[in-house]
Amino acid sequence: MAHMITSQCVNCGACEMECPVRAISAAANQYVIDPRVCVDCEGYFDIARCKWACPVEACVPERAAYIEHSASLQNRGTRPVVFRADGNPAGTPLAG
Amino acid sequence: MGKRVVIVGGGWAGSAAAITARLAGADQVILLERTDSLLGTGLVGGIMRNNGRYTAIEEMIRLGGGQLFKVCDDNSRHRNMEFPGHRHASIYDVNRIEPAVRRCVLDHGAEIWMFSRFVAVERSNGSITAVRLENGTRVEGDVFIDTTGSCGAQTLCTDNGNGCVMCVVRCPTFGPRVSLVGACGIAEKSGKKPDGTLGAMSGSCKLSKETIAPHIIEELERTGLAMIPLPAHMVNEKKLGAKACAQYALKEYAENVILLDTGHVKLMSPYIPLHELRQLPGMEEVRYVDPYAGTVGNSMRFSDLSPRDDAMRVSSDGQVDNLFCGGEKAGLLVGHTEAIVTGALAGHNAVRALAGRKELLLPHSLSVGDAITTVREEMQTEEGMGKKYTFSGSVYFNRMKERKLYTTDHAELDRRVDATGLRNVFQQKVV
User: Fold this and answer.
1) Which of A28, A85, A93 sits opposite B113 (nearest CB)?
2) Which residues 32-91 of A are in CB contact (within 8 Å) with B?
3) pTM as predicted
4) Lowest mean pLDDT among B48-62, B178-192, B227-241
5) Of A51, A90, B4, B15, which sits with the fewest C-beta atoms within 10 Å of its C-beta?
6) Cβ contact (<8 Å) for A72 and B134?
7) Which residues of B touch A7 (CB under 8 A)?
8) In this predicted model, which residue has the larger pLDDT, A6 or B68?
9) Mean pLDDT lowest for which of B127-136, B196-205, B369-378, B422-431?
10) What pLDDT is attached to residue A92?
11) Tens-digit pLDDT profile for residues A38-92
12) Which chain B residues are Cβ-neighbours of A87 within 8 angstroms?
């Protein structure tokens, strides 16, 4: 198990400074927790320090379903679709 | 295989670039779009040909780059109408425009890739070689055009606006816009509000027609315009300063609710709380269709503006040599017309660059050429970064009038364009 940060993150950076194992870093649109580093603050604090520090309750125990369905086209099963002159979908491009 | 032009971002600018790149003779043109539809913010726009935009559009038609303007004309709900501060406007139907633009782009032989969000760039020896999409697909190309715009990601709206208000850009579903220029490590600028904070708020909302009283809708559909005076306690002139569209920052817009018929009802105000809007006679049951949370705010724009020259080539101190830009990405030139102009020039010049030909510069005797240079120069100054430029109003339209560039006289426009020797230049193959 690990903790994760939901899209409610407001990019304040409070969690990053508090994390005892430096598992948290800034990503494109919010902060993220590296689940390979996070130890849920076991042996450090009773309440996970990020959860304690977060002003918007975005730091929560990891939920598999959230990660699977989080906002990315790939996770939604959507792939690029190519349209050519006849206007009908001509299939998906091959991944390079 | 021949040379390939890859355009990132399928709004008005990217669609225009795809068309002019094909007209200039590019073998293969791929237009990458993040969402399920072309046009982006153009899906909730509509206003064309108002004030100096009329001149710019007629210049572009004579230069041979009028394809998308014809699509707008063909899909206009109202023509030659007036609303406060604006003359001879056309309004395209936002519910019909996207399929028409899509057909136009495809008919010119470009490919459109939907659900194709750009996320990373590959480079070699000072050139971009490929872009990567969210799902890992790699798209190789010979020349690239950034028409990703200046809206989103959501953090732009949370940091500088009133939060995500669920607008037509749809970042939460399709993922945030990523700047191609930014991904190349090129420093970009952001526009500023008059109070010095970053960005600018989009200036209008869309209301559902079915939720407004029939007598207002009747007037709106007949004339294109309905004006409803605001009660004194609701007038807020301060809000005007926050808007992206300085051409609508007039007293009439603070003292009235101004509605235009774009297919939806376009409310010419960045946002108004629903309960206040419902105090107006005939609007008791109104609801928003864009942004969904028009009660509290609107989308933020004008982050990540690219440095560029007047040929629309991205200026990068030698970091990349095959990158162009157009649309809002290319500077504080606001609007659909403006995006089509800069996008069209970027598409044409991208092919000239492939062919090793000298790039086309639009002359300053035309408003389209003068605007591209003026805005680039203005953006060098702190004061200039706090303004917005458009053919249709505010500082740039004043400049057009001062320099006698503004005209609706077709014979005069013929003379001007013929004097430049560039009649139909966008339709001439350069390879």
Assistant:
1) A93
2) 71-74, 78-87
3) 0.87
4) B227-241
5) A90
6) yes
7) 154, 172
8) B68
9) B196-205
10) 80
11) 999 999 999 999 999 998 888 999 887 766 666 667 767 778 899 998 888 888 8
12) 102-103, 106
**CATH code for position A52:** 3.30.70.20
Domain assignment present for A13: yes
B348-404 pLDDT per residue, tens: 999 999 999 999 999 999 999 999 999 999 999 988 988 889 999 889 999 999 999
Q: Does B134 touch chain A (CB under 8 A)?
A: yes
User: For the complex shown, is ipTM > 0.85?
Assistant: no
Closest-CA distance of chain A to residue B176, Å: 8
Q: Residues of A numbered 4-23 whose beta carbons fall under 8 angstroms of chain B's beta carbons: which are they?
A: 7, 10-11
* Residue A93 covered by a domain: no
* pLDDT given at position A96: 45
What domains can you pick out in chain B, each with its CATH number? 4-196+300-427 (3.50.50.60), 200-290 (no CATH)
Parallel, antiparallel or unpaired: strands B28-32 and A81-83: unpaired
Residue A50 is part of which domain span?
Answer: 3-69
Question: Cβ contact (<8 Å) for B137 and A84?
Answer: no
Chain A contact for B140 (CB, 8 A cutoff): yes
Q: Which residues in chain B have Cβ-Cβ distances shorter than 8 Å to A94?
A: 137
Q: Is residue A30 part of a domain?
A: yes
Q: Cα–Cα distance between B168 and B44 in angstroms, integer? A: 7
